[in-house]
Amino acid sequence: MPRGKKICECGSENGVRSKHCKSCGKGFVFRVKSKEERTTKKIEVDWRELQKGDKIKVSGGPYFYKHDGESVPMGYSGKFVVDSLDDCGIRAFGVDRHSGFCHIYMGRDICNNETGIWKVKHRLKKILYKDAR
After folding, report:
1. Greatest pairwise CA separation for the chain in angstroms
2. Domain region containing 13
3. Does residue 111 sit in helix, strand or coil?
4. Do 53 and 110 reside in the same domain of the chain?
């Protein structure tokens, strides 16, 4: 398929922005952006540069490694508001699913051999709100 084209179920090529097939007239399905996707932007940032009140989206983090090869996530995920920073992580309050205080680990990767828990830094992005126009 050439770049800038999409193929209908009938087999004809159409332009990327086409709403209907030029041959059979069938409509294409478009994914509707949520209000959050339209009004926010997520950027990668160094966690040490965060300040109190910044909003972040967090994923990944520590996990428990079972002997059968399966891993169980034990870190936080979702949206948080930064309260303060310490030498190995971020103290934050949850916004959506988490409603309490938490510590988001951002230190170096280490394994506790007694428990089988790997402490791995979380992945995070800072949430910026776009200007309302």
Report:
1. 65
2. 1-30
3. strand
4. yes
